[in-house]
Amino acid sequence: MNIAQIETNLQNLMQNFNQETFIYEFMLAFGFPKTTIARLQKGGTNMSKIDGEILLKKKLWFKPVASAQLYQTIDELKHNPDAIKHDPRFVIVSDYQQLLAIDSKTKDTLDIKLSDITKYFDFFLPWAGMEKATYQGENPADVKAAEKMAKLFDEIKKSNPTNTKEEIHALNVFLTRLLFCYFAEDTDIFPTQNQFTNYIKSVSCEDGSDLHIHLNTLFDTLNSTNRDISNHLKEFPYVNGGLFKEVFPPLIFTSLSRKLIIECGAELNWSLINPDIFGS
């Protein structure tokens, strides 16, 4: 289980939110085995006998409460003898609008709107075997970007052969151009935030069938000093250096590869990402 997968799992969880199954789906999002969840749901490994409450040794103490009782309850659980006896890594209380949590190992705390859980999932990464000393040694933005781009690369390769040196070169140049556009729209090389991402989103079909046309048109624009062009391209500047000079056979895109291209731009702040992680 990696960070990108966890984030995707949590997005799906919140899009299909179910109060009754939330805590189980939340644990599954971090890679808990389905057999562990099944036993927990049946009560076999649940050390708490209070209805709705979950206490799993070394892992979790979860208690749903009314809004007015959130802070009092988490303080009580923190000092409860069962917290010492069963040593749950995370103590969590929620009214399904707000979520409070304590990391019993680091003593860190979390107080967020439940709807923002995808922004703070790193708090619970120890469940996935990633302690803070492990994942904070690297920039989380770098890790997330590398994983997102790897997923995009794999998806594009499914539809485009890389059997020859020329095909490999063409795909590598395309990905380099994408990276440039992502960095450009978040570092003021392009005048408007998310300019590239919004362009792709607004002009191309959802099935990705015409995406190659719009990308090639944009790349031609970036390679040209001529600004006698359509309005939606005029704001893109001329980029010197030859990155957009070569012409290649059009790539084939799918609805998923289009979606991933848009997500890489919309969900990542590229100004925080070190370009060195992608090599030369």
Task: Describe this protein's structure.
The protein is of the alpha+beta class. It folds into two domains: 3-135, no CATH class; 140-278, no CATH class. The protein has helices spanning 3-15, 22-29, 34-42, 70-79, 81-86, 132-135, 140-159, 165-186, 195-203, 211-222, 231-234, 255-266, and strands at residues 54-56, 60-64, 90-94, 98-103, 109-113. The chain has a five-stranded mixed beta sheet, covered by helices on one side. Helix 1 (3-15) runs antiparallel to helix 2, helix 7 (140-159) packs antiparallel against helix 12 (255-266) and helix 9 packs antiparallel against helix 12.
What labels would you give this structure?
280 residues; alpha+beta; 2 domains; five-stranded mixed sheet; 12 helices; 46% helix; 9% strand
Strand order, largest beta sheet: 1-2-3-4-5
Span from first to last CA? Answer: 28 Å
Structural class: alpha+beta
The largest sheet is: 5 strands, mixed
Bin the strand percentage. Answer: 5-15%
Q: Helix fraction? A: 40-55%
Q: Which series of helices and strands comes N to C? A: HHHEEHHEEEHHHHHHH
Q: Report mean pLDDT, rounded to a whole number.
A: 90
